[in-house]
């Protein structure tokens, strides 16, 4: 038996240890329960036996099942059959043959820049089941066929038996345990303490196999697609994923939250890749980010070195023939693998980015409404602050110019920014005037946005000519030029009191979710957004799966909110409120939270003090679960609130 095969066997044996540890815990509790019942009088033991068993052995058994139970996450995507894309399936079949595994049972194209195998497993991965391959559409769009071939071969090679018959089970177990380990570190499951301690032992015993298995998968990818393509995948996959994160944060996210959706999400991603080559180069030079504690991949430098043959020494070069150059990568575009890749992209967008009432527009319109919506939110907050400072409502640009003309805007700015110099305060006044004039020009249909895909946008006149409102704003800050500025703006058609007009309800960005919390004693589910907490009445015990699916649907639909500028100087700020709460839901904006207090004890809990004098008590429970990133989002929100209240 080779060293790698022995490492795989040790890893699988250590994996089975989780089941042994869990069984020993139950056996110990059962033995203690039996001993206690034997010591009690017979009549009392008969009466107390059932409730005592349920309270101890039954509760621990349920906790053990919950701690070791893992649901397979199925990403949203479009299934591609052999008839739909025979060439793509031929590539997958070839990769499976190269890896020595059977082809996957299904192939699904997903939105993320990734390639991953999902398998229905039992007993922590010791027993396998149906396998599906999930392939990211961005890979088919941006890569040549050779790189797609290498990426698929590497992923399927995780199920190869080259490192021994137990290698597939060992790999499946590492993935399952890595997913469960995050749950063992949170909540109050009594079984988690022992499992968490044993997980450290397991990880040390599994480390040699995980390293060898990833390197073996790299070698299989190089054998099937060529070493050049295998190396390119190692370098470029993190880059593509990073660019996709940038694309969603800077291009899709703002317009999505403003209530719109682009007509062609994936086409926009290709444009960003083509336009932002400098960012691609920076990400490639930076390399992949360090993986977490349960990441199976060795460092990138080690993987690249293993795929790069050593250069021959000078002595060897004189006696031996020159080493053969690696076979060149055939630069076939991967979109030829799918007959109608744009059509597949549209079908995937309907699944991965359902509009849920959002308005579908072209990219120019989408980017325009996104930029305008950001300015509207900024203006609402600024106007609320100025309103408090001057003691009267300030609803629009016309009123701001009046304040600038009579000098009250300068006085208000000095009150709002007491620590700034007069020059810095004047700059803030010009910034506010520039913002308000730009919005007035947009609302009056005098200006529009001109976009490019480098991440910048320029405000231009409706006919495309240059529009310099910054100099106009600087002049408006001078009371002596106020009337001249007003006359100029009227001449070019800017209505300073132009209304906002109809716009779709904005959606708060959902950051994470928690299922089965206790809110003031009642079961509730919770979504953490960038504007506040959405509380949804919980379902009955035992319906955790239904509750998570419901929360996923709410998150996908979005949490509609509106921003209200205070109508009186007593208003505090622009406030996010939920549009038409339904089904007993409650939205708690961050601005309503006055204080956060952590409750003592093993059961995690917090009290949110509210500005209206009320409070909200939230506690975790035995069956609390999280949507991906739920606890992290909650802790970030609590830390933010505690640090700013």
UniProtKB/TrEMBL annotation:
Ranges for domain Peptidase M48: 135-308
Residue stretches spanning the membrane: 12-36, 48-65
Source organism (scientific name): Actinoplanes palleronii
Acetylation keyword on record: no
Required co-factors: Zn(2+)
Domain of life: Bacteria
Topological relation to the membrane, as annotated: Multi-pass membrane protein
InterPro entries referenced in this protein's UniProt entry, alphabetically: HtpX_protease, Peptidase_M48
Localization (cell): Cell membrane
Protein's UniProt name: Peptidase M48 domain-containing protein
Keyword list, A-Z: Cell membrane, Hydrolase, Membrane, Metal-binding, Metalloprotease, Protease, Transmembrane, Transmembrane helix, Zinc
Residue runs in coiled coils: none
């Amino acid at each position: 038996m080779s060293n790698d095969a022995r490492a795989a066997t040790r890893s699988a044996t250590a994996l089975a240890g989780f089941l042994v540890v869990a069984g020993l815990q139950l056996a110990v509790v059962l033995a203690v329960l039996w001993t206690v019942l034997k010591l009690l009088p017979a009549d009392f033991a008969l009466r107390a036996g059932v409730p005592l068993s349920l309270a101890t052995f039954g509760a621990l058994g349920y906790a053990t099942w919950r701690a070791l139970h893992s649901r397979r996450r199925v990403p949203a995507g479009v299934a591609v059959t052999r008839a739909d894309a025979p060439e793509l399936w031929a590539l997958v079949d070839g990769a499976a043959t190269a890896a020595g595994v059977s082809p996957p049972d299904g192939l699904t194209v997903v939105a993320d820049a990734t390639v991953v195998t999902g398998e229905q497993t039992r007993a922590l991965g010791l027993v396998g089941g149906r396998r599906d391959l999930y392939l990211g559409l961005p890979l088919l769009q941006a890569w040549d066929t050779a790189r797609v071939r290498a990426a698929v071969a590497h992923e399927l090679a995780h199920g190869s038996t080259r490192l021994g018959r137990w290698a597939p089970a060992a790999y499946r177990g590492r993935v399952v345990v890595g997913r469960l380990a995050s749950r063992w570190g949170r909540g109050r499951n009594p079984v988690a303490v022992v499992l968490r301690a044993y997980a450290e032992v397991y990880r040390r015993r599994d480390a040699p196999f995980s390293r060898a298995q990833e390197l073996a998968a790299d070698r299989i990818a190089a054998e099937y697609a060529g070493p050049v393509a295998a190396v390119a995948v190692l370098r470029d996959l993190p880059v593509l994923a990073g660019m996709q994160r940038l694309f969603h944060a800077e291009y899709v996210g703002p317009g999505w939250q403003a209530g719109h959706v682009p007509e062609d999400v994936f086409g926009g991603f290709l444009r960003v890749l083509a336009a932002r080559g400098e960012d691609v180069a920076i990400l490639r030079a930076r390399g992949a980010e360090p993986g977490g504690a349960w990441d199976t991949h060795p460092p990138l430098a080690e993987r690249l070195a293993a795929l790069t043959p050593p250069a021959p020494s000078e002595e060897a070069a004189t006696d031996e023939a020159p080493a053969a150059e690696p076979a060149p990568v055939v630069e076939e575009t991967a979109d030829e693998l799918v007959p109608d890749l744009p059509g597949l992209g549209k079908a995937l967008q309907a699944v991965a980015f359902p509009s849920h009432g959002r308005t579908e527009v072209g990219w120019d319109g989408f980017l325009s409404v996104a930029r305008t919506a950001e300015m509207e939110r900024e203006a609402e907050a600024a106007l609320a602050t100025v309103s408090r400072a001057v003691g009267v409502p300030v609803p629009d640009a016309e009123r701001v110019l009046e304040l600038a003309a009579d000098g009250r805007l300068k006085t208000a700015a000095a009150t709002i920014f007491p620590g700034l110099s007069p020059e810095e305060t004047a700059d803030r006044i010009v910034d506010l005037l520039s913002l308000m004039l730009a919005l007035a020009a947009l609302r009056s249909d005098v200006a529009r946005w001109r976009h490019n895909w480098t991440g910048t946008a320029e405000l231009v006149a409706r006919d495309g000519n240059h529009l310099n409102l910054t100099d106009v704003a600087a002049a408006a800050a001078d009371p002596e030029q106020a009337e001249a500025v007003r006359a100029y703006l009227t001449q070019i058609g800017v209505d300073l009191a132009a209304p906002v007009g109809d716009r779709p309800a904005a959606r708060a960005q959902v950051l994470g979710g928690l299922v089965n919390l206790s809110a003031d004693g009642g079961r509730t589910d919770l979504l953490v957004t960038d504007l506040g907490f959405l509380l949804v009445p919980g379902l009955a015990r035992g319906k955790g799966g239904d509750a998570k699916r419901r929360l996923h649907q709410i998150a996908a639909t979005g949490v509609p909110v509106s921003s209200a500028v205070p109508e009186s100087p007593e208003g505090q700020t622009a406030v996010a409120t939920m549009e038409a709460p339904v089904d007993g839901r409650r939205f708690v904006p961050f601005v309503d939270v006055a204080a956060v207090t952590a409750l003592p004890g093993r059961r995690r809990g917090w009290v949110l003090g509210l500005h209206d004098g009320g409070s909200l008590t939230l506690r975790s429970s035995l069956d609390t679960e999280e949507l991906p990133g739920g606890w992290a989002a909650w802790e970030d929100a609590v830390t933010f609130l505690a640090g700013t209240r």
